[in-house]
Amino acid sequence: MAQPPQRRLAILGSTGSIGCSTLEVVRSFPKRLAVNYLTANKNIDGLMEQVREFHPRAVVVLDEHSASIARTKLEGLTEVLAGEEGLIEIVARGDVDIVLNALVGFAGLKPTLAAIEAGKDIALANKETLVVAGELLTGKVKKHNVQLFPVDSEHSAILQCLRGEEVTNIDRLILTASGGPFLHLEKEKFHAITVQGALNHPTWKMGRKITIDSATLMNKGLEVIEAFWLFGVPADSIEVVIHPQSIIHSMVEFPDGSTKAQMGIPDMKLPIQYALMYPERPVSNFQRLDFSSLQEMTFLQPDMEKFPCLDLAYSALRAGGSAPTVLNAANEVAVRMFLDEEIPFSSIPRLIEEALSQHVVEQNLTLDDIVRIDTETRASVGGASTDVRTSQRRAASFHR
User: pTM (2 decimals)?
Assistant: First the structure.
C-alpha cells in the first residue's frame, strides 16, 4: 500500500504549549508531517531552537520589535516576517496543506479566515475564533470546501465519538471539565485568590490565559459555543459535567439511550495527532491509559452560582449575534487585568456580565463588524477595570 503524501504544516503559536506539543507529534512522524512555517510572539530563543531543528521555510514574529531581533539572529537560516500581515501571508502560501492555529485569543481570527479562503485545512486550537465569528467562519469553511479539525480535547473526543454516526441523530453532547483548582473552594474566598494559585491547574499544563479560563470555567463556556458551531447542536443539547480526573474527554448521548465516551490520559498530543492525521490512527509511542491504576472516576454538576462565567457563556450563545464577541473580548481583558494583579479574581465575571448587559446585540456580522465590536468592548471593559482599581484603593484607604 502506498504511503499517504506528506502533510505540510504552518504552526501558528509554535512556542506555546500547544505548539510545542504539535512539534512532538511531528517528531514522531517525520515522513508524514513537514514543518514549513513557524510563528511566535516574542519568544525568540524558543523560536531559534525550533528553526535549527525543523528548518522551516519562514517564520513570523508577531511583535515588531522582537521581529527585528529575530531577523538579526536568524539571518541566513530562514526568512523572517512580522506582524499579522506576516501570518496572513504564510497561511496562504502554496506549500501549506494544513494550518494548526494555536494562537491565543482574538488574534487567531484573521489568519484562520485567510487560510480558509486560500483553501487550507484547519486544525483549530484557537477556540476564540469560533466563539467570536462562528457563523462567518463556518460559512467560509463550507464555501471553500476545506476541513476544520478541532484540537481541543473535548471537541476531538466528540468528533471521534461521531465517527460512523449521523450528526442529526444526537440527544446530547456532554463536555467534561476538570473543575479547575478552585472546585472545592468556598465562593466567599474567591476574592483572595492569587495569580499563582489560579495558575496551579490540577490536571493540565497549559498557557496562562487558558489556565485562568479553566479556573473560572469560562474555558468550558467558550467550548460550549465552539461545540455549537462545530457540530450544529442546539445550546440546550450541550451540557457540561465536572470530571476532575480528566480521563473521559467528552461524551455523546444518542436517542436510544446509548452514550459513547472517548477516553485517554490528559495529554494534548493525542487530539493534535488525530487532527493532523485524520482520518488515520497511526501507531504512536504516547503514554497509554492504565485502567488498573484508576481508583475512581467522579462526576459533578457545575455550580453556576459559584462559577458564573459558564452561565454567561450560555447566555451569550442563546443571545447569538455579537454577544459571544463581547463575551470573549471582555473575558480577555478581564483575565489580562487579573494576571497583571490589577483586579481580583472575583471581578472577572462581574466585568464580563457588565459588558454583556450594556451591549445591544447585532446580527449578520461582517468581519469589520466583529473587529469593531471587539475593539469597543475592550475599551469599555478597560475603563470599567480602572473603576474597580479605584474602588479597591478607596476601600484600602478606608480600612487603614
Answer: 0.92
